[in-house]
Amino acid sequence: MLPASVSIDPAFVVGPVRRRTFGSFVEHLGRCVYTGIHDPDHPSADADGFRGDVVELTRELGISTVRYPGGNFLSGYRWEDGIGPAADRPRRLDLAWHSTEPNLVGVDEFMRWATRAGVEPMMAVNLGTRGIAEALELLEYCNVSGGTEWSDRRRANGAEDPYRVKMWCLGNEMDGPWQIGHKTAAEYGRLATETARAMRMIDPDLELVVCGSSNSQMPTFGAWEHTVLTEAYEHVDHVSAHAYYYEDDGDLASFLASAVDMDHFIESVAATADAVRAAGKHSKRINISFDEWNVWYQRRAESRPPSGDDWPVAPVLLEDRYNVADAVVVGNLLISLLRRTDRVHAASLAQLVNVIAPIMTDPGGRIWKQTIFHPFALTSRHAVGDVLRLAIDSPTSDTARFGEVPVLDAVATHDAATGEVAVFVVNRSLADDVALDVDLRALPGLRVIEALTLANPDHTWAATADDDTSVVPRPNTTARVADGRLRATLAPVSWSVLRLGPTA
Ligand code: AHR
Known about the structure:
single chain; 504 residues; alpha/beta; 8-stranded parallel barrel; 7-stranded antiparallel β-sheet; 10 helices; 25% strand; binds alpha-L-arabinofuranose
């Protein structure tokens, strides 16, 4: 048993819990859209062909925003292919995923789906094969009331009121050589700036996200952000960060410590943005939209797009099956994002359905939850109020990738209105229980409302369509408050939420 202690004080506020931290991502990729959210043959499908059971699980997952329509797909996409009568829409080659795009779902269908799912749409404009003019036309289509060509086209297509989309991404991963229309930082910085300036001429209140790095291992990481922000600083609000560099490649100890990498990533991007702020004598701060993150087994066959003459519609792609250890890492990555709520103002778990996703569907059939569904849903539900800065005293363990890392990682939220506290905590030890001791002296009179732990003696257990319930978060009966301290035993390779509230 390893001892670890945490002190919580409601005076040490990092910042508010931001609902946008619990965003997700729907890309025209594999089976995320077709046979994912959209499956007209499914018994629960609505008039648009959207599965009702996917909408229900999206709500249960607690998703706030959904980024759309890509991803790498975005950089070859003509948005106007996806409007008007479905029978008249062209089928196109999707070069990013070597697939055929049938354009049965486009911006109008997506907006209707977003309304049903109760999520805020976060749109992206193609700055790969297209530019300022097409971005402006899409913005006019979405946000102008009427009386112009594109806004009247929207009304003719059934949406009288504008969609008023607030958040817009200026392209996707433009630093990546794999991206269609990939650019240097200087080229992209200019294009993003001019696109942002023009978009704000239509709608000055937009929140604009400029592309940061595709991952922290990119050779241009840091320099890219510096160059792009030096150009675009006054015209954008957020810089994006993407991270998928997390998979169990046989080194479980390093994998479980993946949040150390995310912490470092956030710190580096924030520091770079602040350096540009200082040098440019800007007063506002640029914050981070961590708009693609997850565990992703990129070397698995499912991640390889088709090739040659095979251009299928909605092929099986990136359909990772997540186990208990993956869920612990996802829960820990969310801890990392919340901990930096001062700088991470939005985030999107990539993706929502079938493609590296918490929700899986059989075409026309069953729906089921992957292990990663649970820590996400529980964090989204119970992280309320302010994020608190914790003092953590944890034993460490050695990892090949990150050196010495704390075994225990945690974040806590405090809802001043109800007095409730939620502690989200992982035990990253491979073999040892942790005896957690939380000092609550600054928060007298609390009791345990609920304590749940996700763990399994076999951390490789993964949910399937046949069984997605035999390993789920279970009550942790060791959690107790006495003498101003919360004590709980945390199993190895586990994620937990410990909820406290005032005694009646
Ligand atoms: O989410 C899968 C892909 O990962 C996205 O299309 C791209 O933006 C990223 O590289």
